[in-house]
Amino acid sequence: MTAIDTLVTMWRFLFTIAPSAYMLLQLNIGIMERRPDIVDEAHRVRTIHIEQLRDSYDFVVVGGGSAGCVLAARLSENPQWSVLLLEAGGDEPVLMDLPQMYPVFQRSPWDWKYSVEPSNRYCLAMEDQRCFWPRGKVLGGCSSINAMMYIRGNRRDYDHWAALGNPGWHYDNVLHYFRKLEDMRVPGYERSPYHGHGGPISVENYRFASPLRDIYMEAARALDVVHPDGDFNGRTQTGFAPPHGTLREGLRCSANKGYIRRSWQRPNLDIVLKAFVERVLIDARSRRAVGVAFEYGLVKYKVRATREVVLAAGALASPQLLMLSGVGPREQLQPLGIEVLQHLPGVGGNLQDHISTSGAHYTFDSGTPGKHLSFIVPELLNIESVEAFVRGTDSFFYASPVSEVMGFVSTKYQDPALDWPDVQIFLGSYGYGADGGMVGRRGAAITLENYADSFEPMLYRDSFVVAPLLMRPRSRGYLQLISSDPRTHPLIHANYYDHPLDMAVMVEGLKFAHRLTLTPVMQRLNATLNIYEWRNCPEVEYLSDAFWECLARFYSQTIYHPVGTCKMAPNSDPSGVVDPRLRVRGIRNLRVIDASIMPTIPTGNTNAPVLMVAERGADIIKEDWRHFSDGGWH
């Protein structure tokens, strides 16, 4: 590939930006003028004026993401308690409601823009050989920028948490909280013992699908791997089916929409947006959290918490805040001049994520000239589709092509009788060439050179992607604090594929995914793996295990599920950070309640488990302060 080819690709990107931006502008204008259901002016959060900030609150919740929204809403159900929610981002823009638009907000002002440290073992096709890690910088957090797939995990995940010494976290107990948070709207689940109704988070089918969805299911039937009842959150997890989503009337149902918009007007709940929390205030003599320090509008503020500070800033920011506040590994804090108030070596460790391989792209023939079965973005991002959407008609903007069909499978390294799959597979209805590289390439941070080399030849052709995800990695990463400045991101050592079994499982997942494309229905479409990706490792045998490993190392991509960095564990585990009541070891009146407390990563997308953790965490707080009530939402 020559420099000229790369330059041609870059200029094509530039010429594509203007019409795409114009269509998005028209879409935004149309929504503001004609979709009051999306604008939702009456329920949109109004941040308090900073002059109204009280000197103290019973509870200060740090982070308005998935967990923080739950906690603020649930704790403020008690009218005797005052609650402050601090969120560094603003409210959700209207375009976030549209399922199809979710990739647009990655690497945007609504994203923290984390990236992992470079490696020669993964993310080799990415800019600087770094995996890009989007994290929501907006009220609702990652529930506002994710792909909305509603997967709870496997019952064995939670039984395993309990077996590790965390009583109260077994499946039979946490199922109550999954049901409590849920408003299941998919027909056929009205009497299911696994589902709830009337909760804050509505769950629906995705409203708009491509013709490929039925083709994927026919391929799954050919391999006899169709899910028996289409419910990954029910009695069994193994199999293929279209996933359910956290959707309301076909649009995103974030934690902000589900929890905060129905509670923010309570007189005992204050919310400050654009508030950047810098550290937890801890009294060194009593070893007690007494408040937080934050910045708002370039002015520094301190606010007291008379009962508790609750960190809900996520798996990256919560451990960083602990370390900045003097709680963490002594060997990291002392060189930075941070006084060690509590040596906790586990803070920032135990990092886990669901690594995927996004490079298995296939082209195919639709069978009808001029008719596409997959999503070709320039044909769909036009004034007609914008007009259809603002009229309320089902359209492209209700789609979530990233995984129209999902599957959970067990490789040869996992006993299928356990129904505890070790691979998740997304069947997506467009490839990197479908949008000209404007969003997919940018979101994955693939270099211009690699895109020109591997994906430019399949530009705007019918294509799909089969992406396996490693469910329970053996590898563990860690965060490294490099500055006492809270605005400096910690280094993220993802350590993907450190354990050799992780790559072995990923290779088996890719091979299984390829078998789906060899089924009769796929072969009738002439489904063909994008041969140009072989250019990454031309020395290996095509379709050998080494070939699939090459694909995995070049096109490594997070599925946005980092967890584990403030591990929940009994006192006997030296790597633990919080106890089963989510209290930080050695520091009174300080808890962490978010994805960071998970000792092991759940089998599936993590947003629903985070909501569950926060629901249970809110009840734990109520119990511990002896103010638990069954009032409020159920």
TrEMBL record:
Co-factor(s): FAD
Keyword Coiled coil: no
Keyword Flavoprotein recorded: yes
One family name in Pfam for this protein: GMC_oxred_N
UniProt binding sites for FAD: 138, 277
Molecular-function annotations in GO: flavin adenine dinucleotide binding; oxidoreductase activity, acting on CH-OH group of donors
InterPro entries attached to this UniProt entry: FAD/NAD-bd_sf (IPR036188), GMC_OxRdtase (IPR012132), GMC_OxRdtase_N (IPR000172), GMC_OxRtase_C (IPR007867)
Keywords: FAD, Flavoprotein
Span of domain Glucose-methanol-choline oxidoreductase N-terminal: 314-328
Protein family: Belongs to the GMC oxidoreductase family.
Protein name: Glucose dehydrogenase [FAD, quinone]-like
Species in which this protein is naturally found: Drosophila lebanonensis
Gene expressing this chain: LOC115626692
